[in-house]
Design a protein that fits this description.
The complex is a heterodimer of chains A (112) and B (113). Chain A is mostly beta strands and 112 residues long. In chain A, 0% of the residues lie in helices and 54% in strands. Chain A is built from no helices and 11 strands. Classes of the chains: A mainly beta (112), B mainly beta (113).
Chain lengths: 112, 113
């Protein structure tokens, strides 16, 4: 079982819709959770991080964390074609470490 | 504030050669982590440096090494290059020493022929 799992997609949504990206992790001791956006040929860009159970909102993005169920999700409201990218879920699986374990990413396509 | 910088951006090397990649973190960031990204394996952790000390190492052979200088700049070295080392090498910097947010540089694209 992979430590961090994501559906590879592609996830296709129409412009203006809500895109929902999901990620599950195996280590119950995981402390920190991150979402990165990566455009083709570019490096990952940090867009959200969440440390506590519940929701965290930043503009059109909402990160949701449920430690009991070991999943973290990212909602993108009012999706735009410019949101089309691969979204990587990353988890800090060991307390005190700075190593991130990444999922394989979900490719999002927003159709105009 | 300037972001993470990496040099060179592109490299072509031959099998058996060695290569050194450089990373300058965001000003004030003392932790630098290195990752390898390939289409088949995704993003994998190589190692992390904080205050000139290697704090953690991923599951890579000893041909991969690194160091950090007193100004927090970091270098990674790959010796005896293999075709499978062709990848995008990314460094990420962070402020804290406790698993906080990491910000990536643009990466160095290494091609081994």
């Amino acid at each position: 079982q992979k430590e961090v799992e994501q559906n590879s997609g592609p996830l296709s949504v129409p412009e203006g819709a809500i895109a929902s990206l999901n990620c599950t992790y195996s280590d119950r001791g995981s402390q920190s959770f991150f979402w990165y956006r990566q455009y083709s040929g570019k490096s990952p860009e940090l867009i959200m991080f969440i440390y506590s159970n519940g929701d965290k909102e930043d503009g059109r993005f909402t990160a949701q964390l449920n430690k009991a169920s070991q999943y973290v999700s990212l909602l993108i409201r009012d999706s735009q074609p410019s949101d089309s990218a691969t979204y990587l879920c990353a988890v800090n699986t060991d307390t005190g470490r700075r190593a991130l374990t990444f999922g394989s990413g979900t490719r999002l396509q927003v159709q105009p | 504030k300037a972001g993470v910088t990496q040099t060179p951006r592109y490299l072509i090397k031959t099998r058996g050669q060695q290569v050194t990649l450089s990373c300058s973190p965001i000003s004030g960031h003392r932790s630098v982590s290195w990752y390898q990204q390939t289409p088949g394996q995704g993003l994998q952790f190589l190692f992390e440096y904080f205050s000139e000390t290697q704090r953690n190492k991923g599951n890579f052979p000893g041909r991969f090494s690194g160091r950090q200088f007193s100004n927090s700049r970091s270098e990674m070295n790959v010796s005896t290059l293999e075709l499978g080392d062709s990848a995008l090498y990314l460094c990420a910097s962070s402020v804290s020493s406790s698993g906080g947010e990491q910000y990536f540089g643009p990466g160095t694209r290494l091609t081994v022929t």
